[in-house]
Design brief:
single chain, alpha+beta, Beta-Lactamase, Phosphatase 2c, domain 1, 2 domains, five-stranded antiparallel β-sheet, elongated
């Protein structure tokens, strides 16, 4: 068989039979003659280095991936005088997919995956070596392939797109009418073109990633602004009660929010919720849920009825499986608390007189899962000094560098220790304790906390 190519551009040439070109001939073997009806006289080519320089300049003039792929294939077809050309890259599943395919007439090729020899593509992609076949029909390895016979393939030239030892893609050109249309010099030139093309394609791919990352960052910023605008800027007042609240956003946008809903001078609604998604979809769903909930609370005197009505609307508009856990408390100036819990973390109730805790844990499904969910409500009478803490799972599930979670027991201990403080003092103690527990570990989720404390008999 022939020796390895002497040019660094060509690499090694796979040789499958005597009808496949090698860069050199066997010692003493005469050149293979082609049938007169198919023989080709190769036209003089321009200087290869000048061609490579011109093509490299063309490739580097764009960072749009699709435009780069088009330019690569156009130059390949023009340079090799191929009848057809295909440029293949791996898809998300790892399969080789034709990204650009057209003939020398510039017309796109329909169903390109079924118009090439997959055997050639897979072999070149796997071995990372270029291949030149002068007549696939008489090739000892390819001639028996069904695709070669059905498609009538003759001359085939295929080179890998290599970058740092990895195969990014494959360039495949062929001619179904003539044998021997491609020469070893074509192979060397196409291998050099592929080297420049691989760099241009990778640069375009990295640019696309950077653009997408910038777009994502802008979307996250917009989502953060939407979310922040839903958080109350002022704490309302209700006779006999003190309030404090905090929303600490993490690095990513989640769906935490809390809300104060004034019902009348003697009643106040408090909501804390968490949408099970991130980014702009979560922020928009959160805004929609807040609006629906406010309308339902103002239209239904009983909290359970209000959440039942809100759930029907939220479920009807829920997309991509999004739902929201939520706890709603309705307070009166006389100290009565009515609550409905829709799959949310149970609020912690601290009784000052007995220094004991209870959880407002009457549960139902989150909003957005089942339009026919039933909601029930519970009631408690709070005394002076009693306090309730509503929170999202960013508080209880916050983990330190060892993976240990903050948990609710630590929150209870902080509440008990701060029993003599007002609502602001309890909130500050919780936030400080949580921050000290996390240490240098960045929070993975938003933390929302609402503290309410009974300060007088109204």
């Amino acid at each position: 068989m022939g020796s390895r190519p002497g040019s660094n551009h060509a690499g090694r040439i796979s040789r499958w039979s005597t009808s496949s070109w090698s860069h050199g001939r066997r010692s003493g073997a005469p050149p293979r003659s082609l049938p007169d009806s198919h023989s080709v006289t190769h036209a003089p080519q321009p200087d290869p280095l000048a061609t490579l320089y011109r093509i490299s300049q063309a490739f580097s003039s764009s960072l749009e991936l699709d435009e780069v792929l088009d330019r690569v294939l156009d130059e390949v077809i023009a340079t090799t005088r191929a009848e057809r050309g295909f440029l293949m890259l791996r898809d998300a599943a790892g399969a080789w997919t034709s990204r650009v395919a057209r003939g020398m007439d510039q017309k796109a090729i329909d169903s390109p995956e079924f118009q090439v020899s997959r055997s050639v593509v897979e072999r070149v992609a796997t071995n990372g070596e270029p291949t030149l076949t002068s007549d696939a029909q008489s090739d000892s390895w390819l001639g028996g392939r069904q695709s070669v016979r059905i498609l009538g393939l003759r001359s085939i030239l295929c080179v890998p797109l290599l970058l740092k030892g990895a195969t990014l893609g494959v360039i495949y050109v062929d001619n179904r009418l003539q044998v021997g249309i491609f020469s070893p010099k074509d192979l060397e030139l196409l291998t050099g073109i592929a080297s420049s093309a691989a760099i241009a394609i990778e640069n375009a791919r990295l640019y696309a990633i950077a653009v997408d990352r910038g777009r994502l960052e802008r979307e996250l910023q917009m989502a953060r602004e939407v979310q922040a605008n839903l958080i109350p800027r002022q704490i309302p007042s209700l006779p006999g009660w003190g309030f404090a609240a905090a929303w600490r956003p993490a690095r990513e946008v989640s769906g935490d929010f809390y809300d104060f809903v004034p019902l009348d001078r003697q009643r106040l609604g408090i909501v804390i919720a968490d949408v099970t998604d991130k980014g702009m979809p979560a922020a928009l769903f959160m805004a929609h849920t807040r609006s629906v909930l406010r309308a339902s609370l103002l239209g239904h005197p009983a909290p359970a009825d209000a959440l039942t009505a809100a759930n029907r609307l939220v479920t009807a508009d829920s997309a991509n499986g999004m739902f929201v856990t939520l706890c709603y408390l309705e307070l009166t100036a006389e100290g009565q608390v009515t609550w409905v819990n829709a799959g949310h973390n149970p609020p912690l109730l601290f009784r000052a007189a007995s220094r004991t805790f209870a959880e407002l844990s009457r549960h139902a499904l989150p909003l957005g899962i089942d339009a026919e969910s039933a909601f029930t409500q519970g009631q408690q009478q709070l005394q002076v000094g009693d306090a309730i803490v509503l929170y999202t799972d960013g508080l209880s599930e916050g983990a330190d560098d060892s993976g240990e979670e903050y948990g609710t027991e630590r929150a209870r201990q902080v509440m008990a220790a701060a029993a003599g403080s007002d609502a602001d003092g309890v909130l500050a103690a919780l936030l400080d304790s949580h921050a000290q527990f996390l240490g240098s570990t960045a929070p993975a989720d938003d933390v929302s906390i609402v503290v309410l404390r009974r300060i007088s008999s109204g």
